[in-house]
Structure formats: structure tokens, C-alpha cells
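Expect chain and fold; thus:
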Amino acid sequence: MKLIKRFLTEEDGVTAIEYALIASLIAMAIILTVTAVGQNVSALFTRVETEFTAATEG
């Protein structure tokens, strides 16, 4: 218990927690962005495939 109390009262511990929170927020933003872009790219390739198939059949 003494170790936890000392960890929380020292500024190094607080700084480490702040950096961990910032890093997790950045990671979440990257994951959300990559997911959104991936879905858009997938939709684009599907549309291109559909148009290409229609053009080659006709």
C-alpha cells in the first residue's frame, strides 16, 4: 500500500499515467481512421469492379 501511495504522489508516476493516456488516445484515433479509410477504399474497389465488369460484358 505504501508503494502505491508513493507512486501516486510522485510526479513521475503522474507523468507516466498522462503519457499512457495520451498514447492510448492517439492509438484509438489511428485505429478509427484506418478503419474508416479501409472501408472507403473497399467500397471504391467494389465500385470499380462493378463498372469494369459491366463495361467488359457489354
About this structure: The mean pLDDT is 88. The longest helix spans residues 11-57.
